[in-house]
Amino acid sequence: MRVAIAGAGAVGRSIAQELVSDGHQVMLIERDRAHFDPNSVEQAEWVQADACELSSLEDAGMHLCDVVIAATGDDKVNLVVSLLAKTEFAVRRVVARVNDPTNEWLFTESWGVDVAVSTPRLLAAMVEESVTIGDVVRLLTLRQGQANLVEITLDESTPFAGRAVSELTLPRDAALVTILRGGRVIVPQPDDTLEGGDELLFVTTAAVEQDIKTALGY
């Protein structure tokens, strides 16, 4: 993929390095000269420009990008970049960083955001996930509330141990997409059985998150 990243601070550079390592074409757009350091990610294309200016994005070839990541430390900038990417350049996938959790409600499709990533929320979710069994932990919001990626960990004494995935009676708007078991990632098939300690990942709407918990006996 060709990926444009607005913001070449520590977060933007880290994302760029990961994507470059995976073989993607990456363009870093940075206005601040203090953060403009092509030597830090040599394989990436660097553009010194204001990502909020339409003409700058046109010159950078934003229309050629498959994905745009708004990764600056300013939520206002990330919203403007997302809106321009989606409405002016029809970028297929726009991911935006949320710095202040109180601003999460703004990061919606109306601002061009497909996926909003809130670092504070994600860190909190990771803490909850590591210590909580039987509770629904929201890991990621997709399309700002239309769908969420949630996780629930089965305790060792779960009555569902040994039962097939097909026996789960899940709410209509929930789908079991992955089972994490030890070091394994399992794409569940109807005949696969559950075990105590399994971490179950669901894509679901917010309205039925607690129904998943009930379906698993919690």
Describe this structure in words.
With 218 residues, the chain is α/β, with parallel strands linked by helices. The protein folds into two domains: 2-119, Rossmann fold (3-Layer(aba) Sandwich), CATH 3.40.50; 132-216, Regulator of K+ conductance, C-terminal domain (Alpha-Beta Plaits). Helices cover 24% and strands 27% of the residues. It is built from five helices and eleven strands; from the N terminus they run E-H-E-E-H-E-H-E-E-H-E-E-E-E-E-H. The protein has helices at residues 10-21, 54-60, 75-87, 119-131, 209-215, and strands spanning 2-6, 25-30, 45-48, 67-70, 93-98, 115-118, 137-142, 147-153, 174-181, 184-186, 199-204. Strands 3-2-1-4-5-6-7-8-11-9-10 form an eleven-stranded mixed β-sheet, sandwiched between helices. Strand 4, helix 3 and strand 5 (93-98) form a beta-alpha-beta unit. The longest helix has 13 residues, at 75-87. It is elongated, with a radius of gyration of 20 Å. The protein starts with a strand and ends with a helix. The model has no long low-confidence stretch (mean pLDDT 89).
